[in-house]
């Protein structure tokens, strides 16, 4: 694998809305130019930015597999969205010759992660020669780059499973065979990644001190949090004792690439790392985010709970929950418009807001009832009639979330606050600062003739549900229909993620415990739910589920689904749990959005019958890469 190295002259870690676009190409064997790149601190700083530059952009609608490759979002037309490589994976168009979102080769919508690793190795080989830097600053930069190199390896592992470890660059004058590396085993890969992060941690800054100029840089908080996540992956069924067909590959010399014996010790390591990360983050002021009302009114308790979850995701200012923020791409007005419904106010026109990122009924059904248990388990919930029409009662219990007197599906009533804080739907409401108060929230009409219905002929909501999480409530619509978006970056990891990882690791290590319950309950309490044990005992048809390891595992999975719904997390969780074959073979459902009357609109409509096979747990290697490197074995099933 040979790569051209480039230095990208960017404004270093500037605010979310600014960047530079100058480029300086540097050829690896051109010694004078490479020496110049590390001749002084300012040039070395540019190369440091280059090491960050291959991080994937979370808010790339076409390239982030978490957005559209799973079952949370769906689109309305294969022709209109033919360039959405992530959705084409969901449609079953992945292939072994020219793979979609090919991060190995850097094509079909993906960033080349090997280029990132190569840039990191070049930086590490040369940084000590910079004359006008202190050793302390050099060691901090070295630690950032060591983390990035480890993280790029991990991103490749998430997609491809076992990968070759590229700890050093291969000199350009070496024989061609020296670059034809075989895959390392998955345990070797995880051990390498974790060891690199461990090496990086001591010399990193604890947390950013200059928020405007340093946000996005690697800190101890980031490194500890990501180490915890990586060890959770290493302990999860896809990588720990996997005996499935997708883990059957061997190198040409017969070397096993997956371990086939389950190890509880991996969960113990994950639990320890999660607790260390939580404690360190807490010591440095991190906590679960809660919304602070503005505008001089007292909100309903339900509004507080719903805004807590909305802002935990989409508010970057004074948000103590975000541990690592993606500053490479931000949800600007255009991107927010992909999620936001047209004319959610009288002035928000379809030309500004398109709302074509449609949430599926599949994810809608995952949210709990207002009693904090799954709707299919709640002994008080009319689950069998959930699709029936019902008129929204004119009572305080509903007026902040639903339009009184309107007809809607029964499943939109009596749901948890994360449901109403995450989803937009017909006869629902959305609270924005511009409305003045939660009582003046905007009403939504998504039927064909409705104000937010099928307005644009090609880009429109296809399921009847949209993401409220991508509505920053401070965004506004002016009298001239101008939409002004409050920008926000995507949280790569937030503290709630660590809480649920820790509970999961504790349960897998020793089964249910008071400590595991406490971290789950902290996340639930933030959204207005009672504790796990109390909720299941009082309302579930399986009241003892939290008391068993299998039962609590199922609960934790559902908690993660609901807490991080529409954030791109579920796609990866289903893989590491090996639940994708079960979940991603379910048909994609929505309402009949081409209808104007409630009786016709509220009919479940089959939008797509999708297929997920064992081989789909990992990406295939391209035909070109296998020709370049005959020592690489193809992923199983491809």
UniProtKB/TrEMBL annotation:
> Which InterPro entries does the entry mention?
SusD-like_N, SusD_RagB_dom, TPR-like_helical_dom_sf
Location comes to:
Cell outer membrane
Q: What is its main location?
A: membrane
- Name a Pfam family for this protein: SusD_RagB
Is the keyword Cell inner membrane in the record?
A: no
| Oxidoreductase found in the keyword field | no
Residue limits of the SusD-like N-terminal domain? 22-225
Q: Which GO terms describe its cellular component?
A: cell outer membrane
Q: Which UniProt keywords apply?
A: Cell outer membrane, Membrane, Signal
**Which segments constitute the RagB/SusD domain?**
320-638
Which family is it part of?
A: Belongs to the SusD family.
The protein, known as:
RagB/SusD family nutrient uptake outer membrane protein
Which species is this record about? Sphingobacterium paramultivorum
């Amino acid at each position: 694998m040979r790569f051209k190295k480039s230095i990208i002259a960017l404004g270093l870690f500037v605010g979310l809305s600014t960047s530079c676009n100058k480029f300086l190409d540097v050829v690896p064997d051109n010694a004078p130019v490479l020496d110049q790149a590390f001749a002084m601190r300012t040039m070395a700083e540019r190369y440091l930015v280059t090491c960050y530059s291959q991080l994937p952009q979370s808010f790339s609608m076409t390239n982030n597999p978490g957005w559209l490759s799973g079952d949370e979002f769906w689109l309305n037309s294969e022709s209109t969205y033919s360039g959405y490589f992530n959705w084409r994976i969901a449609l079953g168009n992945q292939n072994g010759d020219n793979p979609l979102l090919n991060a190995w080769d850097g094509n079909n919508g993906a960033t080349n992660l090997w280029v990132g690793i190569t840039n990191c190795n070049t930086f590490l080989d040369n940084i000590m020669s910079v004359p006008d830097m202190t050793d302390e600053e050099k060691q901090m930069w070295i630690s950032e780059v060591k983390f990035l190199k480890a993280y790029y390896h991990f991103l490749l592992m998430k997609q491809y499973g076992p990968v070759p470890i590229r700890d050093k660059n291969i000199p350009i004058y070496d024989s061609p065979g020296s670059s034809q590396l075989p895959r390392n085993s998955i345990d070797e890969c995880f051990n390498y990644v974790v060891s690199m992060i461990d090496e990086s941690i001591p010399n990193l800054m604890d947390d950013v001190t200059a928020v405007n100029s340093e946000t996005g840089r690697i800190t101890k908080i980031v490194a500890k949090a990501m180490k915890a996540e990586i060890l959770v992956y290493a302990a999860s069924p896809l990588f720990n004792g996997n005996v499935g067909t997708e883990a059957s590959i061997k190198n040409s010399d017969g070397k096993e690439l997956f371990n086939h014996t389950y190890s509880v010790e991996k969960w113990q390591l994950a639990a320890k790392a999660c607790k260390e990360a939580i404690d360190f983050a807490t010591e440095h002021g991190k906590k679960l985010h809660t919304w602070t009302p503005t505008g001089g009114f007292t909100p309903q308790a339900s509004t507080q709970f719903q805004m807590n979850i909305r802002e935990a995701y989409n508010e970057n200012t004074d948000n103590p929950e975000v541990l690592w923020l993606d500053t490479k791409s931000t949800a600007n007005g255009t991107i927010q418009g992909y999620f936001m419904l047209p004319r959610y106010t009288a002035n928000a026109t379809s030309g500004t807001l398109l709302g074509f990122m449609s949430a599926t009924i599949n994810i809608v059904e995952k949210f709990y009832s207002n009693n904090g248990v799954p709707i299919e388990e709640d002994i008080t919930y009319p689950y069998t009639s959930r699709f029936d029409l019902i008129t929204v009662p004119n009572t305080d219990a509903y007026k902040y979330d639903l339009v009184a007197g309107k007809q809607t599906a029964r499943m939109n009533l009596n749901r948890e606050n994360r449901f109403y804080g995450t989803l937009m739907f017909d006869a629902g409401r959305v609270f924005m600062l511009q409305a003045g108060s939660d009582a003046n929230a905007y009403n939504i009409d998504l039927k064909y003739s409705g104000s937010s219905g099928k307005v644009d002929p090609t880009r429109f909501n296809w399921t009847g549900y949209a993401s409220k999480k991508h509505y920053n409530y401070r965004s506004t619509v002016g009298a001239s229909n101008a939409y002004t978006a409050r920008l926000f970056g995507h949280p790569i990891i937030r503290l709630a993620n660590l809480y649920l990882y820790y509970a999961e690791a504790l349960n897998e290590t020793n089964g249910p415990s008071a400590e595991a319950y406490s971290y789950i309950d902290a996340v639930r309490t933030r959204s207005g739910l009672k504790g796990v044990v109390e909720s299941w005992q009082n309302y579930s048809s399986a009241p003892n589920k939290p008391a068993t390891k299998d039962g609590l595992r199922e609960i934790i999975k559902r908690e993660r689904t609901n807490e991080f719904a529409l954030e791109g997390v579920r796609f990866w969780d289903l893989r590491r749990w090996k639940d994708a074959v079960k979940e991603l073979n379910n048909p994609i459902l929505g309402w009949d959005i081409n209808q104007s009357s409630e009786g016709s609109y509220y009919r479940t409509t089959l939008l797509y019958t999708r297929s997920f096979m064992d081989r789909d747990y990992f990406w295939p290697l391209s035909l070109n890469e296998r020709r370049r490197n005959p020592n690489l074995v193809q992923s199983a099933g491809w």
